[in-house]
Amino acid sequence: MNAASPTPLRRALSFAVVALVGFVWAATASAAASVPQRAPTSPLNAGRLLEMVLGLGVVLALIVLAAWLVRRVLRLQPSMNGQMQILGALSLGTRERVVLLQIGGRQLLLGVAPGRIQTLHLLDEPLPLAAQPDGKRAPFQHQVHAALRGLRSTAPKP
Prior knowledge:
The chain is α+β, with helices and mostly antiparallel strands. The chain contains 3 helices and 4 strands.
């Protein structure tokens, strides 16, 4: 028997696949012909515009309601009427920071790490909030370096 000649089983299988493809093609063609054609509608008509505006209003109302609930439940309040301020922070690692905090007229240098806050230094003299030529404050990093240089120069040498 020659390997190129199809066996009766292969012929029957090929015939079944061709018949199935033809049947599916005929069914989709007849279904497409029976569906009535509608006239195209404009995507910007008054009904859709009203639906969009109402949906946007509902979303904005939900955002306002969520903000009110968070403030009401968590009792978020301003920090001591402006008496306590974070003057700056410097990242020391992925989860560690040094924070300069001002409470009234006193300044604290705090070390902040996961699960721990420690006072590093209580500044006797508050750091001046030096202004740059454009009127902005100097970066916190420069202020801390200047303060540390000042502490090193006043520290007694062993």
